[in-house]
Protein: Sulfite oxidase
Amino acid sequence: MENDPKNKHDQPSRGLHELYAEDPIKADELVWNRETDKGSRRGFLKRGGLLAMATAIGASIPFSKNMPAGLIPAAFAQSNEPFAIPGKEGLIILNDRPLNAETPPHLLDDEITPAKHMFVRNNGIVPDSKLLDPASWTLEIAGESCEKPTTFTIAELKSRFKHYSYQLTLECGGNGRSEFVPAASGNQWTTGAVACPKFTGVRLKDVLEACGIKKDAVYIGYYAADLHPSGDSSKEAISRGVPMSKALEDETLIAWAMNDEDLPLLNGHPLRLVCGGWPASTSGKWLKKIVIRNKVHDGNKMAAPSYSVPKYPVAPGTQVPNEDMEIIGSMPVRSLITFPKTGISHKLGEPFPVRGHAWAGDLEVKDFHVSMDFGITWQKAELRAPANRLAWQHWHSEFNFPEKGYYEIWARAVDSKGQSQPMVVAGWNPKGYLNNACHRIAVQVV
Ligand SMILES: Nc1nc2c(c(=O)[nH]1)N[C@H]1C(S)=C(S)[C@@H](COP(=O)(O)O)O[C@H]1N2
Ligand SMILES: [Mo]
Structure:
């Protein structure tokens, strides 16, 4: 992956592929330093055992015999990227053209994600802010399965339809891509392409019904104001959609506000579609037009392999023909540890509180467990109900460590159908989607 020119802004790899590296290692490379050399870490992991790692971390690893082969201490998986995006704080930039930036887990600790901590995922050229005037903005509803094509101003949307607010989980389909082996090209998201702000707007269903949905309608598609990265105005940066069943859910919104303020520029101001629980690529930003389709929408990035996975399990590295791919719907169960921050030092004898969020696409999370001994034993965490359907759920728990040393907290959610998060990346697929592997943090007990 490091040598792939497509990944010019790649993050250090964080997953199992460390172990497949063939690089030789020198003794003076034993402490990994992201700034100086990414490669040394791979070499280190190849030769060094857990004992050497414990030395590098500066602590013993009490449950080291329980740690599965193939996992490296999470203390080695931290990054300290600088950041500078207007309106955003602490995001890690993965690509600057187009701008793509993710949120470190400890900055997602709020129950409702503040605008400054919401990730940014752009496929094209962000519209000039001077063109994003809510007073003159229009939204067109059309398409072959629309009975009465209509154009609305934002003021008309606000006055004609009832307003609703929901907290909605938006997660990029490629969140977690950095862990795939062989690597998938594209933004190397680790865990931070997810957020759960509160959106306010009108129900897509109310607007579509007012414009008449023909009986043959099967899908909706969106068009937006951003340009294709080539600058060619005849092409869309992205134009995706969802089946009618998802479009007509109560929580699917045409939103103008996030957390009771105007949508941030980078998150779609002045209007965006929000389809919580599905790949966030279905939530069109800078929304200009919605079409009601009598077939699966055929806009840019609708066709395989975009946002698609193999219909059957494939071995890592398999070339999968497009006809054997299917489009992603609901996202899988996943969770984050948002407090404390990984790498924290903790005093022996004091209770250690941990917390975070869990979500499961269209489903609910029904069970949550945490471990401090590399998964040998798990304790049930307190799990709260969502603020509303499709909002993430908060969990918390507490540990007492038996002795000084290096620990990891592992967290695992189970959805309402009994489907659990895997410990390592499940289901390799060519584009690196849907990695819902467990999150873990490092703790030094002193
Ligand atoms: N118009 C437009 N909408 C878009 C995109 C885009 O590039 N242009 N990116 C999509 C993708 S892939 C994701 S993951 C989400 C990200 O939303 P955010 O940038 O507000 O976090 O927006 C989606 N909507
Ligand atoms: Mo995405």
The domain at 334-445 is CATH 2.60.40.650 (Immunoglobulin-like). The CA atoms of residues 348 and 402 lie 8 Å apart.
